[in-house]
Specification:
alpha+beta, 7 helices, 147 residues, Alpha-Beta Plaits, globular
């Protein structure tokens, strides 16, 4: 099974929609195997968004991510990276269709409510930034044979 990293940004908690967003991932059959609520420090946010350093939106992205607590999680499932990317939708609100998390909940592109790893390699790097191996809680659900 593939793992991916997802971060629900401060807007999710500020708008009280964390349960709704988490539910979308669960209803798709993805398993939450690591989850935590935290306030990030600048060093971690800058490491996380290092590929965007120097771009016009970088500093605002860092400041927004630091503006409140986030929910970091590792999801597991078949083709988890692609499935999560499909569920979240494109970053641009103009391109994010209804039915995607961004299309349904995001109010501004620059205040995006969710980050999702863009590749298996990216997921591996991001998971390592946010989680130690002992923070994972893998599990099997014998009551859900359809997954």
């Amino acid at each position: 099974m593939e793992q991916t990293f997802v971060m629900l940004k401060p807007g999710v908690l500020q708008r009280r929609i964390a349960g709704e967003v988490l539910g979308r991932f669960e209803r798709k059959g993805l398993k939450i195997i690591a989850l935590k609520l935290l306030r990030l420090d600048r060093k971690l946010v800058e490491a996380h968004y290092a590929e965007h350093r120097g771009r016009d939106f970088y500093e605002k992205l860092v400041e927004y991510t630091l503006s409140g607590p986030v929910i970091a999680m590792v999801l597991e499932g078949e083709d988890a990276v692609a499935v999560v990317r499909k569920l979240t939708g494109p970053t641009s609100l103009l391109e994010a269709p209804a039915g995607t998390i961004r299309g349904d909940y995001a109010a501004k592109t620059r205040l995006n409510i969710v980050h999702a790893s863009d590749s298996p390699a990216g997921a591996e790097r991001e998971i390592a930034l946010f989680f130690c191996p002992d923070e994972f809680c893998p599990w099997e659900d014998g009551n859900a044979p359809w997954f």
